[in-house]
Amino acid sequence: MNYRLYSWLSRASLPLAFGRLMWRSRNQPAYRQRWPERLGFGRVSAPGGIWLHAVSVGEVNAALPLLTSLRKTYPALPVLVTTTTPTGSAQLRQRLGHTVAHCYLPYDLPGAVRRFLDRVQPRLGIVMETELWPNLFAAATNANIPLVLANARLSQRSSRGYRRLAGLTRQTLGQLSAVGAQTSADAQRLIELGLPQSRLNITGNIKFDAPVADTAPGLALRQRLGPKRPVWLAASTHAGEEAAALAAHRVLRQAQPGAALILAPRHPQRFPEIARLCHEQGWVTSLRSADDDTWCDVYLADSMGELPSLMAAADLVFVGGSLVARGGHNLIEPAQLGKPTLFGPHMHNFAELRDITLAAGAGLQVVDAPNLALQLTTLMADAPRRARMGEAAQALVATHRGATARTLALIAPYLETPPG
After folding, report:
1. Helix (H, G, I), strand (E, B) or coil at 342
2. Low-confidence spans in the chain with pLDDT less than 50
3. Could you tell me if 179 and 223 lie in one domain?
4. Could you read off the pLDDT of 118-128 as tens digits, one per residue?
5. Considering its fold, how many domains does the chain have in total?
6. 192 is a catalytic site residue
7. The domain that contains 236 carries what CATH number?
8. 69 and 52 in one domain?
9. For residue 109, what are the domain limits?
10. Is-above-0.90 flag for pTM?
11. Which of 59, 129, 241, 242 is catalytic?
């Protein structure tokens, strides 16, 4: 596939893209807002600075240490962050307020990306993790805007997908000025797809450098739930995993009748559905949105951006997206807080992180929902083992810090040279 065919297909799919926004807006009205930005229109308060793209919540969280360092190192340069999702936008505002500008990244149409770059005029573009947009990258190259792929990760599954468009992928990777990969495995996959080796660096995972979250709200929640009760968290769950978590909780309650479950679904549009599921199964359920402090079996975290606090309140964390084939979620946040983790067999998006977590003895992989119940019950009965796993998790984080400094060194030449 070449750029011309890709651009034609992108234009042809535009009605479907806006139709998808309307469909998703049924549960999240924010998807109906700011549509001109999706086509490259809108104002930028302070062009000529640093532009960083973080597609959604996970990428925003990953970018926070780098954004903080960029603002300290280059205080005279304005920072614009683009996201794709409203939840990413909300997370950015919650964590950084209005210290950085924000807009949505336009769809990858030639005219839309040109308009975007013309009004932003960045000194440098930083794309977090692996978002490869052929028209955007080509337009940046034509405008002499250097592009850096930071904190890059590429699973085997994603690599196979990009290989189906081998020519276009090679051309797109060739537009990058530099790449900072998380691991040697990510680096090798990028080289195999056509990235010039001279532009590749292994910088590590920036998420290891994130400051430890304020634990006070989590400790306060634990007091409200009951300080002596066993408490576990099912974090970032997807469809099917809430039922598995509730089934595991029922098994745990047979051994420890006072145990409480904090349930944190990944997507806010599913909050009402999960609340109904809890009530239908007869669980006494409190909702975070109701600020309900009454005694409960299940505390449903129907809110966004509070996952670290929820982890601080728990004795053990199950990381979702892993019992179903979604590829898993990041294991670093619970590790920072010294929480032992459980996760399912589908961790292909975080394979290297899974492997080092298992090797360090900081987490356990379960094979299916019944095994989750077994491992949960076993670990919740063994406080010394949980303590050892938590200590191993924090040691693992300490060993892998430093990615932010290496990434700053990678991008410094593009910011310290006068523009033009």
Report:
1. strand
2. none
3. no
4. 999 999 999 99
5. 2
6. no
7. 3.40.50.2000
8. yes
9. 3-204+402-416
10. no
11. 59
